[in-house]
Amino acid sequence: MSLNEAPITPQVEEALSIVKRGCDELLVESEFAGKLARSYATGKPLRIKLGLDPTAPDIHLGHTVVLNKMRQLQDLGHTVIFLIGDFTSMIGDPSGRNATRPPLTAEQIQENAKTYYAQASLVLDPSRTEIRYNSEWCDALGARGLIQLASRYTVARMMEREDFTRRFKGGIPISVHEFLYPLMQGYDSVELKADLELGGTDQKFNLLVGRELQKEYGQEPQCILTMPLLEGTDGVDKMSKSKGNYIGITEPADSMFGKLMSISDTLMWKYYELLSFRSMQEIADLERRVREGLNPREAKVALAQEIVARFHSRQAAEGALASFEARFRDGAIPDDMPEVAVGAAPLGILKVLREAGLAASGAEAQRNVEQGGVRVDGARIEDKSLQLEAGTYVIQVGKRKFARVTLTG
CA 188, 189, 192, 197 torsion: positive or negative? Predict the structure, then answer.
C-alpha cells in the first residue's frame, strides 16, 4: 500500500496528537500521518529508531525525554529500536560543539554500554524493544563500503551544518573523521529501514542525513521527530553530567526527590510537559490552580513523587517526601532563592559558603559550620573540611539565608 492510500481516521489523529505532545518538530507531518494510517490499515507496525552513544555510563532525566516518547510509540503498537552507537562513539559526535570531540576507546564504550539498556528499560518495555548495536553493520562496511557511502553526500551539504560552518569561519579545525559521524548515523537508518527517527533538537542535521541516505538507497525516507533539550537543575544549561546539573534515573529516591524540588517554579512546567505521564489537560488544570492561588510547591511535590515512583516505587516516593519535609521542618524553603555557580568541583564547604555569598569570610563560614548552622539539601553539616562534588545543592545558613548552588565538574 502506498503512503497516501490509507484514510486518516480518528484513531490516526489521536495517535498523531500523542506523538506530537511536547515535540519541537515533526518532519514531515503529512508523511508521518500517512505512515500511521497505512500501519493501522495493514496491521504492520512502524519501525521507530532512537540511537544513543554510550558516552557516559548513566542515563539521566534529560535522556528520558526521548525515551518517554519511544514508550508512547510502543504503547501505540509500534516497534521500537534502541540503537547503541558503539561504532559511532569511536568517532565522537560533533553536534553543537566548537571543537573536535575526543573519541572513546572500545573499552570505555563497552563499559558504558553495559548499563545503558538496563537503565533504558526502566522507561521502555523490554519485551517490545529491539536492541541493536551499529557495529553490526558498520564494522562489516569496510574501507570500500565507507568510500561508497561517502560518495552519496557532498561536502557542500555537510557544510550546511551550523557548527561546522561556525568552526570553519572561525578557523577552528574540523577533522575529516567528524564528517563521518552524520554519514554513519544516517546509514544506521538505511540498515534498520526506519520509518521514524527521534532525537534532540541538536540532532536535526544528523537525522536529515539519514532521510537523504534512505532516498539514495531506494528506501521510503524516514520522518523525523525532534524533542526539546531539557534544562538541568540550574535552569540554564541542558541537563548534563559534566555540568553537574543532572538527575540520574538510578539515583537514590531521596536525592532524586530533593533535586526535583530544587528546580524553579517556572521550569517545573517544562518538566511536567516532557517528563510527566499526566495528560496535557491535567497539567493545564494544575497550572490554572497555581495561578489561582495554589502553592507551586504542591505541584512540584506531585511531580517529584511521580518521577521518583516511576524509577523506584510509590512507597519510596512517599518516604522521600517524608524525609524531605523532616529535613526542612526547622524552617521552610523559600520559593525563590539566589542561584549561583561557584566554580569547579570538588570544592570545600567553607569556600562554597564564601563564594555563594552566604558568609562574608572564611572565619564566619567556619563559625557557622561549627555552630551547626549550615545545611546542604537539608542535612546539617558538621565537617568543616567537607568537599562538595559536582551538582546542584540547596544550601542554608541559619534560618533565613538560602542559595541554590551549582558546582561544575
Answer: positive
Domain extent listing, the chain: 10-227, 253-327, 339-408
Q: List, in order, residues 6 or more apart from 254 with CB less than 8 Å away.
A: 319, 320, 323, 324
Grid coordinates representing 150? 561517502
Which CATH superfamily includes the segment(s) 339-408? RNA-binding S4 domain (3.10.290.10)
How many CA atoms within 13 Å lie on the side-chain side of 202?
10
Q: Is 382 or 39 the better-scoring residue by pLDDT?
A: 39
H/E run at residue 317: helix 314-327
Q: pLDDT by residue (tens digit) across 332-377?
A: 666 567 888 887 778 888 999 998 888 888 888 888 888 888 888 7
For 329, the 3-state DSSP assignment is: coil
Regarding the domain with residue range 253-327, which homologous superfamily does it belong to in the CATH classification? Tyrosyl-Transfer RNA Synthetase (1.10.240.10)
Distance between CA atoms of residues 310 and 320, nearest Å: 13
Residues of the chain with pLDDT > 90, as a percent, come to 35
What pTM does this model have? 0.72
pLDDT tens across 46-104, in order? 999 998 877 766 789 998 999 999 999 999 999 999 998 888 777 655 554 444 456 66
Residue holding cell 529500536?
81
Q: Answer for the pair 64, 275: CB distance below 8 angstroms, yes or no.
A: yes
Fold of 10-227: Rossmann fold (3.40.50)
CA distances in angstroms from 40 to 48, 127, 182, 258, 319, listed in the order given: 15, 21, 32, 43, 43
Mean per-residue pLDDT for 384-396?
81
Task: Please tell me the distance from the alpha carbon of residue 405 to that of residue 311, in angstroms, as a whole number.
Answer: 26
Rounded to an integer, the average pLDDT of 295-306 is 92
Is residue 241 annotated as involved in ligand binding? yes
Q: Extract the C-alpha cell encoding 42.
A: 495493514
Pull the grid cell for residue 122. Answer: 526502566
Cis peptide before 54 (omega within 30 of 0): no
Task: Cell numbers for 154, please give them.
Answer: 557532498
* The C-alpha cell that represents 406 in the structure block: 551549582
- DSSP codes, 78-132: PEEEEEE-TTGGGT---TT-SSPPPPPPHHHHHHHHHHHHHHHTTTS-GGGEEEE
